[in-house]
Design a protein that fits this description.
The chain is mainly α. It has one domain. The chain contains two helices and no strands. The longest helix is centred in the last third of the chain and has 25 residues, at 48-72. The mean pLDDT is 89.
Length: 79
């Protein structure tokens, strides 16, 4: 696998993992703290940088498994 293909696969895995990680630890804003026009379903503390870091670690683990399967020959993507 070339490094460009590996980067593309990691990119796709990262985005899929992000959608799995986004709901972790979400707490809604207290209705008493809502400003006019603010969505009541918005998260109180999104902690997006922490979620990006968790996504990167999760995507790295999944990609390592994918790479191992590809290089070991147990699964062939050429057929």
């Amino acid at each position: 696998m070339s490094w460009q293909t590996g980067l593309a696969v990691y990119f796709v895995i990262w985005w899929i993992a992000l959608f799995a990680v986004l709901p972790w630890g979400v707490r809604r804003v207290d209705p008493a703290d809502l400003n006019p026009g603010e969505d009541p379903g918005s998260p109180a503390k999104p902690r997006i940088l922490l979620k990006f870091a968790a996504t990167s670690v999760l995507a790295g683990i999944i990609f390592a498994g994918f790479y191992w399967l590809h290089e070991s020959g147990l699964v062939s993507f050429r057929q």
